[in-house]
Amino acid sequence: MFAYSVKRPYTLPFVVGLGGLISGILVYTIAPEAEGHGTDAAIDAYHNKQGKIRRRIPFVKLVASAITIGSGGSAGREGPTAQLAAGIGSAIADMFRLNPQDRRIAVAVGIGAGIGTIFKAPIGGAVLAAEVLYRRDLEPEVIFPAIVASSVGYSIFASIVGFEPIFGYSTQAFSVLRLPFYALLGLVAGGLAIVYVRTFYGVNSVFKRLRIPPHVKPMIGGVAVGLIALVFPEVMATGYGWVQLIISGNLQALVGGDLPILLILALLPFIKIITTSLSVGSGGSGGVFAPGMVIGASLGGFLGLVFHMLFPSVVPSVAPFAIVGMLSFFGAAGKVPLSVILMVVEMTGSLQLLPAAMLATAISYTVSGLKYSIYRSQVNTRRDSPAHMGEYNTPLLSSIRVSEINLRNLGVAPEESVERAAKMMQELNLFSLPVVEKDRFVGVVYLDRIVNKKGSVSSFTEKGASYVKLTSTADQAWEVMMKNRTMWCPVVENGKYLGSITLEDILKEYRKRSLALNQTLPFQETPKHE
């Protein structure tokens, strides 16, 4: 079936499984947050962690992903690159002591610049930075900084590897007669995107329920991928080589006859979905962007070849369908339709495919719906993001008293060692803690100030931090969090520290109140006009 061979194919399950084991040990020993795909973690940091990304995470992610991909695991490098760039943005924000809003912008800009640079698509990358955070919204404050960062990243990267579009210059003339075929491609791509998301998180859920050491799970996924690769080696690693073959039409040179090509292209999307789910969904480290591109390109190549066989005069080439399929599929799976439409132009160096990409992506995005996204940390709109809670939810938040929110016993003594304080923050998944001395709130100690440092907490305490009282409101507590650059707010009454409320606790109370309000509102029928 294939015109190539592996000298010792029986070693594939062992090699891929070993890569998964090493990657798992590295991740779960040093930075458990680096498991899975990187872009989603960066999105989560934007919405829920004030843009805070631990310094070690991007580098652990980079090495672990390189091991996963290098050993043959089905994963991509764009996600880890995006998380690395986002982590650098977060580190720069900490270095200049930027406020949480600017830190979030730096993280989002890093995501877009990282992906836009790799694909030589700076405009698409800039829009992606604003679009990938939401399922049906954009972050306008991110766009202009992302344009600057993407331009700089692209210029440096392309000056080394060349400025040519990654798919070459497309010179094929556009024909309106092909639009119905692109519409059908978009329809199928939207449905396949749902299959991709459901399969990925279904496998992920199964692995999470397994009661075995977490670092062993990627090994199991790797062994399974290696077994599949014995029959279908195209599913290994990023798969970009196969995409290039599909687009260039050179697959014919490797596989004889049209039927085997159709069979490979028909099976490859589904098998790639399964192997990616096993490699990354098991807890392995890698991206889901590249596998998504391979899945979409295979789907587009399959349908393009079918259309070519049926209507050779209308569809003279498979390549445009592979390119449009690749991007329309991920536009639906990642909920980034505008970004991928722009990327089509930049990656082909031509406007010829723009109408086809617009039609196919719009249809695929609509068919896939808002429920299914490969990035689970996305929220629907800015209104749903904790990052904008103070902008949209102030009326309801102002009705919630601090006394009605659960108080947490957070705090570290001034004489405590910074090593102990750092360990407490990591256990609590926080980047700062209140410093408390004999029931008195002293100030705040930040994780980035004490990492790899020696001494007592008192030497690194920032005094003069704001606090609230029991009679204060939730929106006032949120404002204090923004001012203190924390995810918690100290509560002090008559000079005594009572505890802290966290952003998570405020959101829980807000959702409870919002649900109760919706249930008690009377239903009003629309007036009928006679």
Automatic annotation (TrEMBL):
Stored SUPFAM superfamilies: CBS-domain pair (SSF54631), Clc chloride channel (SSF81340)
GO cellular component, as recorded: chloride channel complex
Residue span(s) of domain CBS: 460-517
Keywords: CBS domain, Chloride, Chloride channel, Ion channel, Ion transport, Membrane, Transmembrane, Transmembrane helix, Transport
CDD domains found in the cross-reference section: Voltage_gated_ClC
Record localization: Membrane
The keyword Transmembrane helix is annotated on this UniProt entry: yes
Membrane-traversing stretches: 12-31, 105-130, 142-161, 181-201, 222-247, 259-281, 288-311, 317-344, 356-375
Membrane topology listed for this record: Multi-pass membrane protein
GO MF annotation terms: chloride channel activity
Protein name: Chloride channel protein
Source organism of this protein record: Candidatus Marsarchaeota G2 archaeon ECH_B_SAG-F08
